[in-house]
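User: Please predict structures.

Assistant: First:
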Amino acid sequence: MPKRDLPPKPQVEGKDHASGHRQRLRDRFARAGVAGLADYELLELLLFRSIPRQDVKPLAKELIAQFGSVAEVLGAPLARLLEHEGVSEKTALELKIIEAAGRELAKGAIGKRQVLSSWSSVIDYCRAAMAFADKEQFRLLFLDKRNGLIADEVQQTGTVDHTPVYPREVVKRALELSASAIILVHNHPSGDPTPSQADIRMTREIADAAKPLGVLVHDHIIIGRNGHASLKGLQLF
């Protein structure tokens, strides 16, 4: 008997649609970059890596609604990501790896340059490192005579609204590293970067302690979700 052609296998519409959607997003990113995508669509692209066979659009939208933006999703603590029932440990770790890679990329932009001549890169790096942290961090950028970056260190981590800072420890560390200048940086988890009276007082105390020893405080930058503030620019010390 002559062979008869077998009927084609029925297609699974959901899988075909998901596959086509993923490729369309990738194609759009290839053509227009991040400007061609909505926030949740960029997050979808990131979620594709750890969730290969599932429509991740609802999850991406839920995470954006919960945290506010892609940056805030990536900056969220691991424990908070895992609270969402759609986020597995694998997915949460993947997002934190992407965040760490982005932070290193921003750090690389200032690592071999004169910091004061690449100020926008400094701000970008500080925002990537601190803007979306859920606790206050006090960070120090130590600079050499040419304003090159010697070291970047988190000196203290505090609560949601307070970080203990000890001027003597700041100056001591600057001398240990033979730093000629320092930039103070801390974040406001509330999102509002407006300096408090305590911030201003602490900055002046550090500057007054450092100056006689030949160490300058170039600035104190406060980072928040809603922007940043420069105490030097505001003429507060």
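Second:
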Amino acid sequence: MARQKGIIKLKGTVGDITFYQTADGHMAREKTALDGNRIAIDPAFVRTRENNTEFAEAAKAGKLIRDAVNPLMATAKDRRVVSRLLKLMSKIRTLDATNVRGLRTVGTAIALPSAKTLLKGFNFNDRSHLAAVLLNQYSLNTGTGVISMNALTPANEIDQLTAATHFSIKGGWAKIDFVNKTYELKLSNIVNLALNSAPSNVILTPTALPAGAGTSLYLLQVEYFQLVNGVQYSLKNGAYNALSVIEVI
């Protein structure tokens, strides 16, 4: 893979070179001479088939998470969240010590404490980490999903952005079944405060408990707004909003 330089950027295929655009810019690569049917049946490519199968499994697991938390992630994500989640799910999948290579799954591995540890703390917006935005020590009741903050002082405990005037805090509890590919998300109430407001206690309570079996992901989001003529507008299209997995059970 090579990066295109110069004024004119190409897209498409010229001879054996394919030109395309990614988040990293305009790229070029040589077309492969391998035939898909050969990869599918040739014993020499058994490792490739195993890798492809497990790659697809990790990709599906990442998409399942994105679908489950989309109501929160829609306003707090970076352009690489898909690839970052894929990388994380691939790492978790390798922890599966039950199934043979090629058949390892995130659904089996996620039951392990080490897998849950890898997922805990994941930030959906790599430009704005929750730990850097919210400095208050919050508590989580994993049985009810309630997130509590005592005497939150925005001036000292919320990252102060120059253009922002207000912020919102919201919680979420997602139950994801990586085996059956199902999920349910329950959101909390939203607490909206001015960045210069007085200290206050914050209680975020889910509307209900998510149903079904699976892995519980507890999430916390901080979203910034700018007040203009009595209306709060999301700041810079969510570039500074933070969303993180604060616990996995």
